[in-house]
Design brief:
Blueprint lengths: L7 E3 L7 E2 L11 E5 H12 L4 H8 L3 H20 L3 E5 L3 E3 L3 E4 L5 E2 L2 H6 L10 E5 L8 H9 L1
Parallel strand pairs: 1-5, 3-4
Antiparallel strand pairs: 2-4, 6-7, 6-8
């Protein structure tokens, strides 16, 4: 039996649902799914210019795992560009650093849970909001459980 995957920490969801090629007559009907953790790896390594060790610590994974996630993201982006394919963001195997909400009326994304439950969306004040994902803890490894039992 394979070891369960550790959830990857994501600071915030991507601000887009996807990208479509522009200026071509024939678009490939395939779709490339970019996972949230792959987007986060690209953002940390290329946009924030962190080295792989720093980025892996922020995402809560090992450096080799971060490198695999980052490589997968780069390959998917390259495939979409070369094959003129649409890119869509997909949740994947991740957890948010905070609770994130989505307003169904103005489509804003925000991370203020007390505002979402009491006042609604901070932009349009609509009560029509949904949680993107509740913050959850990944399952404890046997090593961590053993250490906690010693305390």
């Amino acid at each position: 039996m394979a070891r369960p995957k550790r959830l990857r920490k994501i600071v915030e969801p991507p601000a887009f649902k996807g990208y479509k090629p522009y200026g071509v007559n024939q678009i490939n009907n395939d779709v490339v799914d970019l996972l949230y953790e792959e987007y986060e790896a690209l953002k940390l390594a290329d946009y924030d210019r962190l080295d792989h060790l720093e980025a892996s610590k922020l995402m809560g994974v090992s450096r080799p795992t971060f490198a695999r996630i980052y490589e997968s993201a780069r390959r998917k982006i390259a495939q979409a560009l070369v094959e003129v394919t649409e890119i869509k963001t997909v949740f994947g195997h991740a957890q948010f650093d905070k609770d994130w909400f989505h307003c169904r009326d103005c489509h804003a994304r925000f991370s203020m849970p007390e505002t979402a439950e009491e006042e609604g969306c901070p932009l349009c004040h609509s009560k029509n909001t949904t949680a993107l994902q509740r913050k959850s803890k990944p399952p404890l490894s046997s090593k961590t459980r053993f250490k906690e039992n010693l305390k």
